[in-house]
Amino acid sequence: MAHTFDDLVEMQQAADEAHAQVLELRDRYGRPTETPWSQEQTETYEKAWQHWWKAADEVQAAVTKHAKDEDKSRFDVEAAVRTKARHPEPEPAEAAAS
């Protein structure tokens, strides 16, 4: 399936959110080598990690395909997607004031 640039940005944002969840769990639980995790903590972390890994893998594959389809540099497409996903344009002042 072909993805638009905006689709790629949304996919990257979802992957970034999943990664933030993994980091939040790691911070909350501590390092498993220092403080053993319960079975529930281990399963929760593993599920979050797998979700992040899948999302990241999917966005990488989509970026590669998009770059090839558009005959653009994969590096340039990935950089543009990450920039747009992580630093969206601010809302106009009128919309923000509403």
Please provide a written account of the structure.
The protein has 98 residues and is mostly helical. It has helices at 5-29, 39-70, 74-86, 93-97. The model has no long low-confidence stretch (mean pLDDT 92).
Question: What does this entry show, briefly?
Answer:
The chain has 98 residues and is an all-alpha fold. It is 77% helix and 0% strand.
CA-based gyration radius = 17 Å
- Helix content, binned percent: over 70%
By secondary-structure content and strand pairing, the structural class works out as mainly alpha
Mean pLDDT: 92
Number of strands: 0
SS element count, helices: 4
**Euclidean distance between termini CA atoms:** 38 Å
Shape: elongated
Task: Give start-end ranges of low-pLDDT stretches.
Answer: none
The major beta sheet can be summarized as:
none
Portion in strands:
under 5%
